[in-house]
Amino acid sequence: MKNKILIILISVFTINIIYAGCGACNVDNKKAETPMGEFVTSLSKNGTVDGMVLASCGMCNFGMRNKDCSLAIQISDKAYNVKGTHIDDHGDS
Predict the structure, then answer these.
(1) Per the domain annotation, does 40 fall within a domain?
(2) Which residues of the chain, if any, have pLDDT below 70?
(3) Sheet of 78-81: strands edge to edge?
(4) The pLDDT value given to residue 28
(5) How many whole angstroms separate alpha carbon 70 and alpha carbon 4?
(6) Residue pair 74/32 in contact by the 8 Å Cβ criterion
(7) Torsion angle of alpha carbons 47, 34, 91, 64, nearest 10°?
(8) How many structural domains does the chain have?
(9) What pLDDT is attached to residue 76?
(10) CA-to-CA distance for 68 and 21, rounded, in angstroms?
C-alpha cells in the first residue's frame, strides 16, 4: 500500500513539473491585443519583417499556448515565435 501511494505521489509531482512551465508568470492573456503606435501591421509576401514590432515572452504577454517562456514578436493582433534565439539571450526572463 505504501508503495502505491509513493508511486502516485511521485507521478503527480513529475507531471506537474513537466507541464507547469516556468511558473514565473500569472498568465491570463487569452489573445494578443493590437498595439497602439507605429508598429508593423502585416508581413510582406516573402515573410520578412521591416519595421518595429513588439518582442516579449509569448506565453506571458501575447497569450500563446507555449509550455515555457519563449521569445515572440507581435504583428497586428497575431504573435509569432522567434526562431534562432532564446528569450534569455536578450536578458534575464
Answers:
(1) yes
(2) 19-32, 92-93
(3) 54-57, 71-75, 78-81
(4) 61
(5) 37
(6) yes
(7) -80
(8) 1
(9) 82
(10) 4
Q: Is residue 26 part of a domain?
A: yes
Residue with cell 521569445: 71
Angle of CA points 76, 26, 20, to nearest 5°: 105
C-alpha cell read off for 60: 506571458
Q: Which residues contact 91 (CB under 8 A, 6 or more apart)?
A: none
DSSP letter, residue 8: H
In three-state secondary structure terms, 71 is strand
- The range of the structural domain enclosing residue 63 comes to 22-90
Give pLDDT, residue 77. 81
Is 10 contained in some domain?
Answer: no
Residue 62 inside a domain? The answer is yes
